């Protein structure tokens, strides 16, 4: 038989008592920020051959890229969540009004 080995619980990273794996957009924002910062830093070094300046440019692009992607992702996430809440409420109302006089009146108005 197959040995039943209990799965090891995933180790999460906590900041201020909050699991960052549960924060929407956190992972992607940091991955894009890190990769963009490294790429821009390397290109700055290749262009200027000044490691101190390239480090500053790389870190600045990491910071700006992370913040910009975070804001864009969170905006899209909030818009999607709002639309889902509206749809959930509309579906609840539809189920409540189904087969009643109110549904027929709404069908006449929407036609």
Secondary-structure element order, N to C: EEHHH
Strand sequence of the main sheet, in spatial order?
Answer: 1-2
Q: So what's the overall shape? A: elongated
Span from first to last CA? 63 Å
**Strand elements, count:** 2
Strand content: under 5%
Question: How many structural domains does the protein architecture include?
Answer: 1
Q: Could you list the spans in which at least 5 consecutive residues all have pLDDT below 50?
A: none
Structure commentary:
It comes from Drosophila navojoa. Keywords: Membrane, Mitochondrion, Mitochondrion inner membrane, Transmembrane, Transmembrane helix. It is found in: Mitochondrion inner membrane. InterPro entries: Cox20. The protein has 111 residues and is mostly helical. The protein has one domain (22-110). Helix content is 72%, strand content 4%. The chain is built from three helices and two strands. It has a two-stranded antiparallel sheet with strand order 1-2. The longest helix is centred in the middle third of the chain and has 47 residues, at 51-97. The model has no long low-confidence stretch (mean pLDDT 88).
């Amino acid at each position: 038989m197959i040995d039943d080995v209990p799965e090891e619980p995933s180790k999460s990273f906590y900041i201020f008592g909050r699991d960052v794996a549960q924060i929407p957009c956190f992972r992607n924002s940091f991955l894009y920020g890190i990769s963009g910062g490294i790429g821009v830093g390397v290109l700055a070094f290749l262009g200027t051959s000044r490691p101190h300046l390239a480090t500053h440019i790389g870190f600045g692009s990491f910071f700006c890229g992370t913040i910009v992607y975070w804001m864009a992702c969170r905006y899209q996430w909030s818009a999607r969540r709002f639309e889902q809440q509206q749809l959930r409420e509309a579906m609840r109302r539809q189920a409540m009004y189904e087969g009643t006089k109110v549904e027929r009146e709404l069908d006449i108005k929407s036609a």
